[in-house]
Amino acid sequence: MPTRPGRRAAIVAGLRTPFVKSGTAFKGLTALDLGRIAVSELVQRCELPAKEIDQIVFGVVIPIVQWPNIAREVGLAAGLPKNIEAHSVARACATSLQALTAAADAIATGEVDVVIAGGAEALSDVPITYSRPVAQAVVSAAKGKTLVDKLKAFCCPSRRPSPSTPPGSRWGRAPRRWPRRTASRARRRMPGRTARTPAPRGPGRKEPSATR
Question: Are the C-beta atoms of residues 56 and 81 closer than 8 Å to each other?
Answer without folding.
Answer: no
